[in-house]
Amino acid sequence: MQWETVIGLETHAQLSTMSKMFSGASTAFGAAPNTQASAVDVALPGVLPVVNKGAIERAIRFALAIGANINRRSVFARKNYFYPDLPRGYQISQ
Amino acid sequence: MLNTPLKELSAALAQKKISSAELTKLFLDRISRLNAALNAFITVDAEKSLAQARAADERIAKGAAQPLTGIPVAHKDIFVTKGWRTTCGSKMLENFVSPYDAHVIERFNASGAVVLGKTNMDEFAMGSSSETSFYGPVKNPWNPEFVPGGSSGGSAAALAARMAPAATGTDTGGSIRQPAALSGLSGLKPTYGLVSRYGMVAFASSLDQGGPMAKSAEDLALLLNVMAGFDARDSTSIEHPAENYARDLDQPLSGLRIGVPKEHFGEGLSADVGKSVEEALKEFEKLGAKRISIGLPNSSLSVPAYYVIAPAEASSNLSRFDGVRYGYRASGYRDLADMYRKTRAEGFGAEVRRRILIGTYVLSHGYYDAYYLKAQKIRRLIAQDFAEAFKQCDVIVGPTSPTVAFRIGAKAADPVQMYLNDIYTIPANLAGLPGMSIPCGFGANSLPVGLHIVGNYFAEARMLNVAHRYQGVTDWHRREPAGI
Amino acid sequence: MPLALEEVRRIAELARIGISDAEARAVRAQLNDIFELIGQMQKVDTDGIEPMTHAQGSASRLREDAVTEGDRREQFQAVAPQVERGLYLVPKVIE
Prior knowledge:
The complex is a heterotrimer of chains A (94), B (484) and C (95). Chain A contains two helices and three strands, in the order αβαββ. A two-stranded antiparallel sheet of chain A has the order 2-3. In chain A, 18% of the residues lie in helices and 11% in strands. With 484 residues, chain B is an alpha/beta fold. Chain B has 15 helices and eleven strands. Chain B has helices spanning 6-14, 20-38, 46-61, 103-111, 153-160, 177-182, 217-227, 271-286, 302-317, 336-347, 350-363, 369-389, 415-419, 426-431, 460-473; strands at residues 41-43, 72-76, 114-119, 167-171, 186-189, 209-214, 257-261, 290-294, 395-399, 435-442, 448-455. Chain B is globular and about 65 Å long. Chain C has a two-stranded antiparallel sheet with strand order 2-3. In chain C, β2 (83-84) and β3 (87-88) form a beta hairpin. Chain C has helices at 5-14, 21-38, 73-77, and strands at residues 62-63, 83-84, 87-88. By secondary structure, chain C is mostly helical. Classes of the chains: A alpha+beta (94), B alpha/beta (484), C mainly alpha (95).
């Protein structure tokens, strides 16, 4: 039997924003655990996310740099699952 | 003092006829006498309230008072209040003390109002009777064997029993309007986006709105003036120019076109309610308004669509209650999965668990299109029905609830029966339109009947005007329960 | 479309709500009633209708990229069930 090896690389690149995607907490590297977790990040009852404009700008720049197609309309959806490092119990994704 | 309009209470405070501390104490005393029997409040903290009242008195003395400075306000226990417990009527948050204030609470604090206490409610706002609270059911002050309505039943009971002069509620499918109707009060659900949801524990994000509850439209206007306004922390908060919602209260109603939806007067509407609503419509005609028959053809689909959308959004919003960072955590678990399962099985009551299950199902793989997407399309149809109707009329008027208050326990066994209570109120939530309820008579068992008014987007001032003029020629809103 | 008992258990697991067999049976009956109510949606043809996500239909407002939140770990963890050295404690996750 012949086997063909197929390896996929999922690459994540952190955007160079100063604050987080959905909250105004700092993204600075090296801080003590949970000292850069705002009420929104900890998902306290009643908090709401607000999208980081800088992140959108950088995503568009990246898309232009690689000649990608930019959607004029993007929709956020929730991917619901349970994990201790997922405070809301869902991931806000596109 | 107990029946005094907010405007006059404010004047009395300014003229030093009474201090905020005295006024607050007056209501605190009533709460300590009456709350055990009615269960309207979950948390009261006299020390904290009086400290705020004294600060309000200082502000009044300095001449820096605003219309609500020194006025005690009862808050539905779904608005997080820094330093106070916020339970949402649930075991899950039994000991939760929020480290921050809801935006609405910040606004009341800035205006100098006094937090009088946190009121009881259906658990996580899921219910139409205030029976699902972990802290016991709320009793209707008109007859304690009956429900006050829900989910803002604690605020309704507090107002009806004169334990508070003003209150806040939230409305996702009718939870301000229906308890206002069943308890003889005035309540308003604003246009979606007018009142910030930051700090209002989320039930169904695309439907929830916080709003005022009080004894008159005039009082509601003063409360809305404080509650409404842009908040950058809520992405759905509308940047609408500031308004004085009391500015048009006295405008005459001549020429007002009142749309009466035929679908809301058919089968299911109890005769006593229909009669009171019909009499109210005649009063409006005497005030110069014109009745126009309109159709809301997709009305009957609003309850099914709502019971897909609301549970779906709730199931997601309540996922954060997992015992990890705050709230109830079960004891005696084997591992993480077991901790989650036990925490959520024990922390949530039956109605909440049911809705989470419905919501999880309709969002799960393979069912999303048939249920959630379908419901969102029906939502569009319902919004379009209203848009068409508002071409022919200025406000839409009908019954708030199909019946007057029912007995505690009467509908508890049948969730679907309970859901049908919201048949007239739900369409406004789906469309995001403002809606209000005001008292218009009494029905079976001498219980209050509510009149429902729906306006176009951002038409709150007009709706309050319509209600205020009606309250100028009737006295239903001034009646109070006997023996209270 | 009535739910099978197995489906009730599957949904309960997705929602991480512990449920006994007796409870699953009881809630299944109630859920089926609710699904009958929801089934009324099928009465209307919605082909070609654009779904409505919420009232205003406007775009999400964006926030300037700036650090506006500081360290509030102590305050936030004061309400936590179990913490140690600034970390939230949970039962071991076995992968």
